[in-house]
């Protein structure tokens, strides 16, 4: 009987796989607008992404190498990123030309027209107008197949340019024979040390006709950091040259093995057909029925984009390059790369737990190996490099979700230990977070976003601990998971940054600034996925929280502050085009208003996903934007990855069949009950034994003037009115005095520079200690600034430039004044004539952020504030290309000079030069402390 069932299941599977779901895939979706996808050939999770490059300038909308608005192709390279917000890849670029070969990209590039361009799952073709060459591309996992048809007779060239797109650190080309070459490329871009090897096989003999080499040049070996070659041969009209390219991260031996395993075929159509078959196998996991062809294209292209990455990152024999740059061989799992975890933990990975449990386990085994080799779990891993892009340690979400859903195939203990390690490091504000249960502006930039996302991640680790029966770990991380309470302002309901013990003011929830990651307070004030009931209670109950959800959709659809290109698809302040908003519409379910969830989700599905090149409302972000669509159209979404359940909405399609790995099929219709949807795929998940844990007491806020003249009133307020508050003050007169905390009874006055410490207590549980410093002014000068400060970088007002407090090298903490596109000029009024012997002002450089040292600084003196005499002109030798963030004090010793007024003038760098990624943009001057002695 079991054998009969197995045969029957196999037959059903073969019928499903044979259906042509790939016909609905439109790889051009997302290649326009801000989708950042690519249209080229790729198989599911393949190492090769063989696609045209129309962008080589590193521009934001060209992150994938291609943008639909372009009309010039520079070549066809073998690696591409799917929808990221940072540019990289574009490795091993080939370009066919005719006539006299040129290695200048302006010469070998070609115009093209979209009317002569086609793309489907696993296939891409285009006509290059310049030389009337038809290009066809397909691929296996590790081997790219090119077919060039030369429609004119003459000299055909194939350009290999290793300087294509990113910086070449080390290049090598070996000539094996007249039809075979080997290539090594080590490059620097987003991934700062990327290795790739290639074996290239031509279908006919080709000779080197031109070369550009700045290193070794031998008969069959070329090396250097400037390396391009043209391979040429005569062709007849209509002649076809085929090229096969096998890639590997491990070495030439790896490329040869990959070529032997996947590059034997010389039949392009057979390889193309197999790629289509591979796609149909993956796409058949979800069958949707619809008479609307556009909806089918949107759905199956979304599934296609989810399955485009992470990418297999090992050779056919299992060998891979580890995070420590050493070579390893896998044992029992597949090793992957390209983990955009800040994005994909929300929907892409939860979707995979439903339809691909085996690959989910492979991802986690990859995480564990990267922890073992690199010292921590991946944050945003790319080509065996940790980019440290984005925030949190969201690998733990993927792991906790898999464990909660009973996915096997990885070591739970190892995964837990790796997760705990990430949470206990002292990086990116974690040291302050561990000590205070929140991050303030004084500790780290993007403090609000980091606090709330660390808190969610800690909850995930607590769930792992609960599954493994680790009571103390569970209790510790559950307490940490409540850290959001320290940034929840009960007066307005928003997650608000804290600075110097108090709420940061002025506060505008729509302002995009350095206290949030790619967003504002609207976007992060709902980011308590681990404790929605607790957030509802903080707001005062379901009715008030419902009003707060209503408010984000009803707010004006304009953000303030910094321009943030990622914030798109606005419905009020809700931003479908970026990830922090993705769960918010589902929160209506928690207040008993599922009809509101249904209405919002349907609007988004109808309006923000289209079968057009600009059919994605924001960056694809390695499948997250599409995974949201897939789950939501099924009627489910993971508000809280780590719980074996879904939040629900009305399914979008009339009927959906989900084919699971165990051979079962789940059928969804618009009539499927919410209770059935809630447990879809995880009906047999069982909860682990609960442990009691401590409720976190939030730390109080301390309010006063940070800088005061003679005296200042200090007020301490608990975030929960019922909490008791205890405080202590420290000043220079307390150096040898033993002080203790005393009960706070009301506001008090200070008259000297003082540090105030306070904590709250509730039911015997103490909060962390809030620390605030209030400084009596070191002088009574005044300052007039004749330049216009950028509203984002005002520090604590104009007096911040003469308050005696120096800004941190991490300028995002907000202690610096920033001036863009202008010189800086200020006049200090010392209030009476003074004898001056030394002048100084401090500047910061962060070249990547457009902040450059001034060209020069001038100091002037005056008695009347009108007639100024130049005292000193200070230059510097810091290279604008230097990317290290650094501070320089422009100080000048002068002969004793009597003056009442001092003028400081700093000349800004000017427009950013061609070598800069922001070329043509205006540089900033960042200045903090001006000192007069």
Q: Biggest β-sheet, characterized?
A: 9 strands, antiparallel
Beta-strand content bin:
25-35%
Percent of residues in helices comes to 10-25%
The global form is globular
Mean pLDDT: 96
Q: Spans with pLDDT under 50 lasting ≥5 residues? A: 1-11
Based on secondary structure, the structural category is alpha+beta
Query: How many whole angstroms does the radius of gyration measure?
Result: 30 Å
SS element count, helices: 19
Terminal residue distance: 95 Å
The order of strands across the largest sheet is: 6-7-8-9-17-13-12-11-15
Question: What's the count of strands?
Answer: 51
What does this structure look like?
With 933 residues, the chain is an alpha+beta fold. It has a nine-stranded antiparallel β-sheet with strand order 6-7-8-9-17-13-12-11-15. Strands 45, 46, 47, 48, 49, 50 and 51 form a seven-stranded antiparallel β-sheet that branches. 51% of the residues are buried. Mean pLDDT is 96; it is low at 1-11.
């Amino acid at each position: 009987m079991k054998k009969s069932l197995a045969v029957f299941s196999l037959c059903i599977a073969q019928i499903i796989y044979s259906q042509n779901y790939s016909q609905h895939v439109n790889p051009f979706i997302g290649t326009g607008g801000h989708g950042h996808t690519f249209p080229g050939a790729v198989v599911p999770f393949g190492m090769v992404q063989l696609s045209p490059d129309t962008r080589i300038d590193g521009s934001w909308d060209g992150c994938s190498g291609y943008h639909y608005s372009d009309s010039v192709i520079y070549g066809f390279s073998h690696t591409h990123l799917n929808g990221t917000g940072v540019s990289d890849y574009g490795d091993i670029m080939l370009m066919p030309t005719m006539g006299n070969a040129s290695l200048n990209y302006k010469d070998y590039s070609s115009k093209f027209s979209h009317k002569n361009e086609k793309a489907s799952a696993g296939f891409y073709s285009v006509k290059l107008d310049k030389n009337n060459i038809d290009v066809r591309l397909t691929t296996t996992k590790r081997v790219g197949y090119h077919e060039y048809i030369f429609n004119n007779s003459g000299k055909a060239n194939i350009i290999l340019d290793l300087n294509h797109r990113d910086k070449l650190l080390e290049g090598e080309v070996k000539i094996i024979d007249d039809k075979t070459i080997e290539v090594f490329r080590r490059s620097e871009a987003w991934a700062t040390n990327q290795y790739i090897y290639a074996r290239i096989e031509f279908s006919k003999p080709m000779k080197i006709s031109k070369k550009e080499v700045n290193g070794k040049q031998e008969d069959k070996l070329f090396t250097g950091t400037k390396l391009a070659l043209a391979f040429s041969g005569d062709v007849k009209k209509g002649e076809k040259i085929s090229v096969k390219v096998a890639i590997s991260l491990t070495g030439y031996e790896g490329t040869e093995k990959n070529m032997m395993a996947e590059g034997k075929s010389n039949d392009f159509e057979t390889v193309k057909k197999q790629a289509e078959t591979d796609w149909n196998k993956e796409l058949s996991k979800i069958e949707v029925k619809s008479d609307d062809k556009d909806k089918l294209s949107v759905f199956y292209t979304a599934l296609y984009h989810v399955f485009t990455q992470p990418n297999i990152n090992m050779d056919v024999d299992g060998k891979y390059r580890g995070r420590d740059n050493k070579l390893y061989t896998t044992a029992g799992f597949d090793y992957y790369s390209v983990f955009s975890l800040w994005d994909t933990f929300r929907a892409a990975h939860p979707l995979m737990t439903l339809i691909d449990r085996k690959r989910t386990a492979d991802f986690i085994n990859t995480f564990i190996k990267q922890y073992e080799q690199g010292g921590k779990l991946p944050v945003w891993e790319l080509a065996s490099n940790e980019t440290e892009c984005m925030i949190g340690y969201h690998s733990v979400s993927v792991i906790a979700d898999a464990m909660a859903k009973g996915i096997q195939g990885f070591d739970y203990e190892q995964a837990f230990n790796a997760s705990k390690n990430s949470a206990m490091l002292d990086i990116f504000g974690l040291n302050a977070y561990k000590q205070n249960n929140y991050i303030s502006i004084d500790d780290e930039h993007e403090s609000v976003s980091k606090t709330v996302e660390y808190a969610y991640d800690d909850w995930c680790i607590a769930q792992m601990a609960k599954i493994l029966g680790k009571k103390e770990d569970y209790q510790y991380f559950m307490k940490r998971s409540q850290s959001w309470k320290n940034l929840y302002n009960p007066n307005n309901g928003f997650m608000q940054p804290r600075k110097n013990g108090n709420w940061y003011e002025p506060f505008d929830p729509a302002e995009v600034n350095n206290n949030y990651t790619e967003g504002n307070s609207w976007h992060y004030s709902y980011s308590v996925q681990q404790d929605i009931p607790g957030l509802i209670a903080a707001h005062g109950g379901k009715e008030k929280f419902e009003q707060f959800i209503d408010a984000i959709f009803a707010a004006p659809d304009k953000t303030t502050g910094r321009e943030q290109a990622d914030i798109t698809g606005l419905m009020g302040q809700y931003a479908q085009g970026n990830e922090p908003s993705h769960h918010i519409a589902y929160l209506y379910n928690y207040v008993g208003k599922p009809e509101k969830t249904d209405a919002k989700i349907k609007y988004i599905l109808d309006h923000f996903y289209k079968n057009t090149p600009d059919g994605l409302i924001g960056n694809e972000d390695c499948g997250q934007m599409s995974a949201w669509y897939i789950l939501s159209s099924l009627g489910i979404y993971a508000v809280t990855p780590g719980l074996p359940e879904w939040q629900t909405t009305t399914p979008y399609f009339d009927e959906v069949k989900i084919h699971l790995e165990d051979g079962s099929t789940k059928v969804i219709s618009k009539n499927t009950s919410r209770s059935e949807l809630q447990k879809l795929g995880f009906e047999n998940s069982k909860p682990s034994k609960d442990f009691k844990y401590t409720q976190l007491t939030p730390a109080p806020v301390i309010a006063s003037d940070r800088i005061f003249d003679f005296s200042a009133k200090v007020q301490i307020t608990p975030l929960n009115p019922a909490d008791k508050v205890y405080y202590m003050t420290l000043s220079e007169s307390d150096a040898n005095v033993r002080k203790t905390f005393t009960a706070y009874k009301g506001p008090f006055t200070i008259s000297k520079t003082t540090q105030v410490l306070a904590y709250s207590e509730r039911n015997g549980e103490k909060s962390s200690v809030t620390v605030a410093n209030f400084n009596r002014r070191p002088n009574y000068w005044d300052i007039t600034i004749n330049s216009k400060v950028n509203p984002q970088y005002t520090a604590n007002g104009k007096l911040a430039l003469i308050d005696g407090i120096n800004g941190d090298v991490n300028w995002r903490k907000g202690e610096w004044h920033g001036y863009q596109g202008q010189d800086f000029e200020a006049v200090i009024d010392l209030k009476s004539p003074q004898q001056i012997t030394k002048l100084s002002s401090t500047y910061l450089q962060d070249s990547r952020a457009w902040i450059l040292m001034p060209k020069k600084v001038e100091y002037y003196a005056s008695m009347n504030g009108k007639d100024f005499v130049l005292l000193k002109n200070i230059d510097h030798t810091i290279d604008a290309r230097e990317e290290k963030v650094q501070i320089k004090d422009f100080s000048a010793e002068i002969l004793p000079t009597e003056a009442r007024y001092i003028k400081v003038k700093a000349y800004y760098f000017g427009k950013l030069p061609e070598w800069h990624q922001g070329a043509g943009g205006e540089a900033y001057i960042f200045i903090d402390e001006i000192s007069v002695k």
